[in-house]
Amino acid sequence: MVVLRKTSLLVFFLFLLLLLESTFEQQTSSLDEKSALLLLRSSLGLRSRDWPVKGNPCLNWNGIKCDQNGRVTKINISGFRRTRIGNQNPEFSVGSLVNLTRLASFNASRFYLPGPIPALFGSSLLTLEVLDLSSCSITGTIPESLTRLSHLKVLDLSKNAINGDIPLSLTSLQNLSILDLSSNSVFGSIPANIGALSKLQRLNLSRNTLTSSIPPSLGDLSVLIDLDLSFNGMSGSVPSDLKGLRNLQTLVIAGNRLSGSLPPDLFSLLSKLQIIDFRGSGFIGALPSRLWSLPELKFLDISGNHFSDMLPNTTVSFDSTVSMLNISGNMFYGNLTLLLTRFQVVDLSENYFEGKVPDFVPTRASLSNNCLQGPEKQRKLSDCTLFYSKKGLTFNNFGQHEEKKSSKTSWLSHTKIVILAAVGGSILLMLILIVLPITVSFCVRRRNRSSTSNHPRGRHNGVGPLPPDETLPSRGGVSINFGSLGSSFTYQQLLNATKEFSDSNLIKKGQSGDLFKGVLENGVQIVVKRISLESTKNNEAYLTELDFFSRFAHPRIIPFVGKSLESATHKFLVYKYMLNRDLPSSLFYKSNSLVDNGLRSLDWITRLKIALGVAEGLAYLHHDCSPSVVHRYEKPFLLLFFYFQDTISSSLILSLPMFTKGYSSK
Ligand SMILES: *[C@@H]1O[C@H](CO)[C@@H](O)[C@H](O)[C@H]1NC(C)=O
Ligand SMILES: *[C@@H]1O[C@H](CO)[C@@H](O)[C@H](O)[C@H]1NC(C)=O
Ligand SMILES: *[C@@H]1O[C@H](CO)[C@@H](O)[C@H](O)[C@H]1NC(C)=O
Ligand SMILES: *[C@@H]1O[C@H](CO)[C@@H](O)[C@H](O)[C@H]1NC(C)=O
Ligand SMILES: *[C@@H]1O[C@H](CO)[C@@H](O)[C@H](O)[C@H]1NC(C)=O
Ligand SMILES: *[C@@H]1O[C@H](CO)[C@@H](O)[C@H](O)[C@H]1NC(C)=O
Ligand SMILES: *[C@@H]1O[C@H](CO)[C@@H](O)[C@H](O)[C@H]1NC(C)=O
Ligand SMILES: *[C@@H]1O[C@H](CO)[C@@H](O)[C@H](O)[C@H]1NC(C)=O
Question: What residues are in contact with ligand 4 under a 6 Å CB criterion?
């Protein structure tokens, strides 16, 4: 009896134990699944702290989620660390996952899995919906087998070392909503039928080596929210089909080799756009006007393209407290407009904006390297003038009508120079006052001059008034025949003289024309001014200059040698070449002991002599000749002086746009 009782008690306990055990097993993973997980733990070298042997995977293992039947559905080993032993021979070995037949999500992001993606992803694991293998140091190609994971919604392979093409069959993953292959070495092209991924919400292919063009079918992705194709080698233009991306909020295609202009209707339907990044993409032309009225726009970076456009003068009613505009490094021009009130941070640097900076422009705006009036570090006057004249517009000359000031602004970059200029300027002024009364009136006219090269100027030394015998006798106010003024050269002669206007002969790009050095057949050194009638707004300027030279000559004014007027599009004026450099470069030349090609910074004696020579020239123009030359010029005062270093410059070349308004009788 006793034995029986004892036995039945034992059986009872055993039964109880079994019962307990089985209910316990019901709540936890199946034995198969637990052993599969333990195998995984050892093949990946996971720490028992994360996955303790005695624990219940569904209840107290980190990163494991099970369904109601105790079957593992999610594994998240993201951010786990390997044991020391696991670190010794790390591999992408996850074979035991095949026994987790309900697995829907595998996230190993930032876990070290060196090696190619195993084929079991696709041959098994067909229940996977989420596969995140980002930052896992994966190598090899994207296996075709992956494209059989037909339930996949999220595929993130970003930040690995994956190479090869994007398999065309990837587009069979019809439920895919996130596809991120960014920061790998994927090459080839984007599958042409990418538009078949009709549920795609995020597509990130950035930072690969994809080539070819943007496939038009991308525009079929009507639920796409984020598109990032940046920093690849893609070429071609932006297909206007992209206007079909009606739900797009982020559009990043920066850093490609795209070309052409943006389709005018690109943004017509993209009313949800918040972030647009097109920087450094090679685009040209104007911006679609709709861009500026996108209601949600927070970030617009189109820097480093070749866009050339004016900003519309519009405001927007909607609130945009955090917003950034970067259009630096383009060719935007015109005035700053009310549009800028929309943005908090603006970078407008390296464009051609002109005019004043209105109060509404954010205080932290970057405005350098424009043609603006007021801010520091603007472009050179000549850059601005050239740019605007190419557009058929007149540059406002930094809003200044005072020629001297504006022509100096571009040179004055160092305080030293400012001081020098101030001192030089006052000396000049004093000298004009001193020289004036004693200057003999030598208003001269040319007579029977075929060339001035034999004139005795340039030999005159010293700084005083010139001896009257060196001036030319004047002639009455007879109308001028330019044909007899100086020599007439053929175009071919000037081509030969200037090595076909080669860059090495270019002295200076001027406002009224470019100056080239040249040598005539007889060895006479000349300066040729090439005037393009197409780019010069005032076509008559060269006539004014010819008129001037036909009336006046003075030892302080560059001798006129001749002209070539045969071409309909270009006119050429020829002057005698003066040794050394033009005055501005010499005055502001800074001695550099390392690269000093023989030229010295000017000493004070020479500077004084130059000032005197200049004063003489000015005094002549203003007071001595009849009719006298009066400064009423709209264009900057661009006297281009040449000097002799040993003797005082006896000549100054007048770059004569200043004479467009020329001289008037007094
Ligand atoms: C994955 O695991 C890491 C580390 O345990 C945790 O920080 C993270 O929140 C988990 N992520 C998800 C999506 O569960
Ligand atoms: C999967 O489970 C079966 C049965 O328990 C076992 O025989 C097999 O070895 C397991 N496979 C892997 C790869 O762990
Ligand atoms: C994977 O885990 C990381 C880290 O917790 C998380 O940021 C990421 O969103 C997860 N991936 C997916 C697809 O949920
Ligand atoms: C795609 O998702 C839908 C809805 O979530 C689902 O009904 C369908 O079965 C899924 N298709 C595949 C192939 O997983
Ligand atoms: C695309 O991925 C890169 C990193 O690989 C990331 O920097 C970028 O922000 C992602 N783009 C979007 C739009 O999320
Ligand atoms: C604007 O873009 C340029 C070139 O891409 C960059 O150097 C500059 O820092 C950007 N400006 C701002 C304010 O981010
Ligand atoms: C900028 O404004 C000035 C004065 O308002 C005007 O003369 C000039 O034409 C404007 N520039 C352009 C390119 O419209
Ligand atoms: C823009 O329009 C405002 C009035 O709406 C006007 O005062 C301003 O001068 C205009 N600015 C430019 C650059 O045309």
Answer: 150-151, 175
Q: Is the CB of 334 under 6 A from ligand 7?
A: yes
pLDDT computed for residue 293 by the predictor? 87
What strands, in cross-sheet order, belong to the sheet with 371-373? 333-335, 352-356, 371-373
The arithmetic mean of pLDDT across residues 75-84, rounded, is 91
Q: Whose CA is nearest to atom 1 of ligand 4?
A: 175
* Domain finish residue from 118, 148, 178: 148
Q: Which of 64, 73, 76 to mutate to test the pocket of ligand 1 (most atoms within 8 A of CB)?
A: 76
Measured CA to CA, the distance from residue 45 to residue 77 in angstroms comes to 11
**Measuring CA to CA, which residue among 376, 384, 440 is closest to residue 413?**
376
Among all bound ligands, the one having the nearest atom to the CA of 396 is 7
Calculate mean pLDDT across residues 131-160.
Answer: 95
Residue 512 CA: distances (Å) to CA of 137, 176, 557, 634: 62, 63, 18, 13
In-domain check, residue 419: no
Looking at per-residue pLDDT, the higher value among 93 and 538 belongs to: 93
496 has pLDDT over 80? yes
Indicate whether 123 pLDDT > 70.
yes
Question: 281-300, pLDDT tens digit by residue?
Answer: 999 999 998 999 898 899 99
User: Comparing C-alpha atoms, which of 340, 299, 337, 343 is closest to residue 321?
Assistant: 343
Q: Whose CA is nearest to atom 1 of ligand 7?
A: 335
Task: Give the span between the Cα atoms of 82 and 84, in whole angstroms.
Answer: 6
**Residue at 582 is within a domain:** yes
Atom 5 (ligand 2) nearest CA? 32
CB distance 78 to ligand 1 below 6 Å: yes
| 430 — pLDDT class (breaks 50, 70, 90) | low
Q: Which of 148, 167, 187 is the last residue of a domain?
A: 148
Q: State pLDDT tens for residues 295-333.
A: 889 999 999 999 999 999 887 766 666 689 999 999 999
In a domain, 175, yes or no: no
Range of the domain at 113: 39-148
- For the CA of 79, the closest atom of ligand 1 is 4
Helix (H) or strand (E) holding 384: helix 381-390
What pLDDT, on a 0 to 100 scale, did the predictor assign at position 625? 66
Please report the atom of ligand 7 found closest to the CA of residue 334: 13
pTM more than 0.85: no
For the domain that residue 628 is a member of, what is the CATH number?
Answer: 3.30.200.20
- Out of 38, 42, 96, 125, mutate this one to test ligand 2's pocket (max ligand atoms within 8 Å of CB): namely 96
Rounded to a whole number of angstroms, the CA Rg of the chain reads 40
Distance from the alpha carbon of residue 155 to the mean position of ligand 7, in angstroms: 53
Compute the mean pLDDT over every residue in the chain, rounded to the nearest whole number: 77
What pLDDT, on a 0 to 100 scale, did the predictor assign at position 628? Answer: 65
Residue 230 domain flag: no
The Å distance, Cα 151 to ligand 4 centre, comes to 6
* Residue that wins the pLDDT comparison between 451 and 146: 146
Taking the centre of ligand 7 as the mean of its atom positions, its distance from the CA of residue 334, in whole angstroms, is 6
Return the ligand 2 atom nearest residue 31 CA: 5
Which pLDDT does position 187 carry in this prediction?
93
Distance in Å, CA 147 to ligand 2 centroid: 25
Cβ atoms of 256 and 230 closer than 8 Å: yes
- CATH number of the domain that residue 57 is part of: 3.80.10.10
Q: Are 58 and 66 in contact (CB under 8 A)?
A: yes
Q: Is 263 left (phi over 0), alpha (psi -120 to 50) or beta?
A: beta
Does residue 328 line the site of ligand 8, with CB under 6 A?
Answer: no
**Mean predicted confidence (pLDDT) in 228-246:** 95
- The domain total for the chain is 2
